[in-house]
UniProtKB/TrEMBL annotation:
InterPro entries documented for this protein: Cupin_8, JmjC_dom
Name under which the protein is recorded: Cupin-like domain-domain-containing protein
Upper taxonomic lineage: Eukaryota, Fungi, Dikarya, Ascomycota, Pezizomycotina
Listed Pfam families: Cupin_8
JmjC domain sequence ranges: 215-391
Gene3D superfamilies the UniProt entry points to: Cupin
SMART domains listed in its UniProt record: JmjC
Coiled-coil segments on the chain, per record: none
Signal peptide span: none
Source organism per UniProt: Coniella lustricola
């Protein structure tokens, strides 16, 4: 089908051979060969130049999606059209956050809009990695808590938010230092906490490679409103995230759940699988997703359980262990670090797939496909997504 981008079909075999010969004669050939060897197990997902709304609105796309993607269980990236004349279907992408006025910073930063601040008291589930030490500037979480105690958005609000966060943080010993293992902390707090975190980062002079500033301090990272059910949002906010036609029309129209994901990069979700098909839409910033077919994911999971001495665990029921400690480290090393020594990963058949998502792009993840997600936005920047599980 012409709408598909299959890069391996882009050049004739003769042209490919000429390119290979030319590459082999290059002074960088040895280095390039090493890079290809390390990354041969990752291929780009199939993609089409049509967003999640257009797919079901045009019969050729709709037929293709239903018969060749949804029924066959094939991951697919749907790219948002680069037009300035089409308003986004997800109004949250333009109404919830705003950029700082020009000149307020060297680079634009996102902060919460007045519209969204009207819902600052709504509770949300949060995740946080703690501590976040920097060699010269201490713990970013501690710096943020100090900021909260002086935050005067509403009298007493900052101190109350600081108490909520502090009450869930594990104690650190006097030898805590940069590079130590982080704790994975979960708690519930008002949306105002995310507002404060964005403001803290927006007016923080970031530490960047090659740029030194005496007043620089590291931004808060990894604060994540993760898997917050859309059903729990105020109705006004739910209307900003309408159910896509693809979710309602591709299969039976059954929706099993939906979530909003708002975080401060670098956000990360470890390798896991879902019991139902998933439509994942990027709203803010960018993310990269890596995927494994069900059988290959099960092999990797079994290898992890064996190596970690957890034989008999269930891949269908996983708790916080997937987001901290040895299991998180194992899957991160196996999936994201090129040249992994894990034999199962190096010999994947078919290979691992990868999807890079920018605002407006979406990814269809078939039932049972293993996937892991991480933001590619600059540290501390806003990153947001929404998804629906359906069939």
């Amino acid at each position: 089908m012409e709408v598909l981008h299959r890069s391996w079909r882009a050049a004739p075999l003769r042209q490919a051979r000429r390119q290979a010969v030319a590459a082999a004669s290059s002074p960088l050939a040895r280095q390039q060969k090493r890079c290809i060897t390390r990354s041969h197990r990752v291929e780009d997902c199939e993609s089409i130049d049509a967003d999640y709304d257009e797919v079901m609105a045009h019969p050729p796309y709709a037929t293709f999606f239903k018969d060749e993607v949804f029924k066959d269980g094939t991951p697919l990236v749907m790219k948002s059209p680069t037009t300035l004349f089409k308003p986004p279907a997800m109004q949250a992408s333009t109404k919830w956050f705003k950029s700082l006025p020009a000149g307020a910073r060297e680079e634009p930063r996102k902060v919460m809009s007045d519209y969204l601040k009207h819902h600052a008291g709504v509770p949300f589930p949060y995740e946080l990695n703690y501590p976040q030490f920097h060699r010269l500037h201490g713990d970013a979480v501690a710096n943020f808590l100090d900021f909260l105690r002086d935050w005067n958005e509403v009298e007493g609000l900052g101190s109350a938010l600081a108490r909520i966060v502090t009450s869930h943080l594990p104690p650190l010993n006097s030898r805590s230092r940069p590079g130590q293992e982080q704790y994975f902390v979960r708690f519930e707090a008002p949306l105002a906490l995310f507002d404060a975190a964005l403001q803290f980062n927006a007016f923080t002079k970031y530490i960047q490679p090659g740029r030194v500033h005496p007043a620089a301090r590291p931004p808060l990272r990894n604060l994540y409103i993760a898997q917050a059910s859309l059903d729990s949002l105020p109705s006004e906010l739910q209307q900003d995230l309408p159910v896509p036609r693809l979710v309602k029309e591709a299969g039976k129209g059954d929706i099993y759940g939906s979530s909003i994901w708002l975080g401060l990069a670098h956000t990360y979700t470890s390798l896991h699988r879902d019991p139902n098909p998933n439509l994942f839409i990027q709203l803010y910033g960018s993310k990269v997703v890596r995927l494994l077919p069900p059988e290959e994911g099960e092999k990797l999971y079994a290898l992890a359980q064996n190596m970690l001495g957890r034989a008999g665990g269930s891949s269908a029921i996983r708790g916080s262990e997937m987001m901290e400690g040895e299991e998180k480290a194992f899957f991160h090393r196996a999936v994201w670090i090129d040249g992994s020594s894990e034999k199962v990963v190096r010999n994947l058949n078919p290979p691992m797939l990868q999807a890079v998502l920018k605002p407006g792009d979406s990814l269809f993840i078939p039932k049972g496909w293993w996937h892991t997600v991480k933001s590619t936005t600059e540290a501390g920047e806003l990153n947001g997504s929404v998804n629906w599980w359906f069939r």
